[in-house]
Design a protein that fits this description.
The structure holds two protein chains of two kinds. Chain A is mostly helical. Chain A is 90% helix and 0% strand. Chain A contains two helices and no strands. Chain B has one domain. Classes of the chains: A mainly alpha, B mainly alpha. Chains A and B meet through α1 of A and β3, α2, α3, α4 and α6 of B.
Chain lengths: 156, 286
């Protein structure tokens, strides 16, 4: 064992190496490692978040689809109701119109018949009067017996 | 054998285990055997050159990766470097609970640097010393036996001691920073034997001081000697295997495979103990 000045030299070299390592080697390497770890952690977190987002979006889409289906069914139902209502209304209207037309026609027919009857009565009256005139030409004075004739006409 | 015929086996081993030395004798630079009288002011130039070279290699690779470090998909080298950094950071996080910007880079430096220095043990033992001998003989006109080249810096006690002393200085620094000077002194004097009685406590102080000081100083000693001992023994066995002729090939292979474990393990142990010691130094409860 011969300790000598080499020891001092090595001691100085050791100190210089450690200081150099501390100043110029360790920090950049450690920074790179830690930054990468951070990056990986961020990436994993982001992928987790994306997975959750995806599940959420799928749920939402399902809900919306369900809503849309329900809405469509409702609309169809409404349309059907309206259709039925419209048909009913139309039928009603048609019936009413038919009734009106029928009533009108009846009234017209009635009026015509009345008119015709009146005509006929007048003609019969005239005929009766003419007949009677002819029969009673001499004996009956038109003016004196007009009340009888009038009564006859009324009875027809 | 690179050492030549006239050298004995023990001479060969001795040659392998000797550092290249440099010193100043009478105001001029001298090398190797001329330095036997130089005492403390001798420099092991092979240890210094290899260790600093490997340290620079480590910092250069890691710095170039750090410069180009991307937050996105990393390249293969960046992946590897980040794996090492992650390993060190995890161990530091698990063991050291205080806040410190120094501990993690310190642990990384120790781990990779010691690993690289240990790794030199796997270079076949005769290659580089023989090459150095050839260079010395060819270009500098030296006797090739006079050229020493010990390429594993961690088999030099100066190297491991320097690391351990560096850690020891930090231990004391952290102790004082966290607990204050008085806290540190109290820790050394009032444990493990303590008493409510003031007089008794004062009597117990020398015993406490002795025990605690030994416990404190044992840490850098064990750090330095563990690494040195493991690598020195491993190197020694490589050298011995290198001396048994053709049989050395399978033996080298087996020992090298086993030694891979030792190389990584010793680097890791040195790093872990550094973290543990500094963690102990900076925690308040004894």
């Amino acid at each position: 064992m011969n300790l000598n000045a080499t020891l001092l030299g090595e001691l100085i070299a050791f100190a210089v190496f450690v200081l150099f390592c501390m100043k110029f080697v360790w920090p950049p390497l450690m920074n790179a490692i830690e930054a990468r770890q951070q990056k990986i952690a961020d990436g994993l977190a982001a992928s987790d978040r994306a997975e959750k987002d995806l599940a959420l979006a799928q749920d939402k889409a399902k809900d919306q689809l369900k809503d849309a289906k329900a809405q469509a069914a409702e609309i169809i139902e409404q349309a059907r109701k309206r259709e039925a209502k419209m048909i009913e209304e139309a039928a009603h209207k048609a019936n009413a119109e038919r009734d009106t037309i029928l009533a009108q026609t009846k009234a017209e027919v009635e009026a015509e018949r009345n008119r015709l009857r009146e005509d006929l009565r007048k003609q019969v009256a005239a005929l009766a009067v003419a007949g009677a005139e002819r029969i009673l030409q001499r004996s009956i004075d038109e003016a004196a017996h007009s009340d009888i004739l009038e009564k006859l006409v009324q009875e027809l | 054998m690179a050492a030549g015929e006239e050298l004995t086996l023990s001479g060969h081993i001795q040659h392998h285990l000797t550092n290249a030395k440099m010193c100043t004798v009478d105001g001029s630079v001298a090398f190797n055997k001329a330095c036997s009288e130089a005492g403390f002011w001798t420099w092991h130039i092979d240890t210094l050159a290899w260790s600093i070279g490997l340290g620079i290699l480590f910092l250069w690779i890691f710095r170039s990766v750090a410069n180009k470090a991307t937050v996105g998909v990393p390249g293969k080298l960046q992946c590897f470097v980040e794996m090492v950094v992650e390993l060190v950071a995890t161990n530091v996080r698990d063991t050291f609970h205080g806040k410190s910007k120094l501990i993690a880079p310190l642990a990384l430096t120790i781990f990779v640097w010691v690993f690289l220095m240990n790794l030199m043990d796997l270079v076949p033992v005769d290659f580089l010393p023989a090459f150095a001998g050839w260079v010395g003989a060819t270009f500098f006109g030296m006797d090739s036996h006079d050229v020493y080249m010990k390429i594993v810096p961690t088999t030099d006690i100066n190297m491991t001691a320097a690391l351990a002393i560096g850690v020891f200085i930090l231990m004391i620094g952290y102790s004082i920073r966290i607990k204050g000077v008085m806290g540190f002194v109290k820790e050394l004097t009032l444990h493990p034997f303590s008493s409510k009685n003031v007089v008794l406590q004062i009597i117990l102080i020398p015993a406490n001081l002795l025990l605690e000081t030994i416990a404190l100083v044992a840490k850098p000693f064990s750090l330095a000697l563990r690494l040195f001992g493991n690598l020195y023994a491993g190197e020694m066995i490589f050298i011995l295997i290198g001396a048994v002729g053709l049989m050395q090939l399978p033996l080298h292979f087996v020992w090298a495979v086993f030694h891979i474990l030792v190389i990584v393990l010793q680097a890791f142990v040195f790093m872990m103990l550094t973290i543990v010691y500094l963690s102990m130094a900076s925690s308040d409860n004894h």
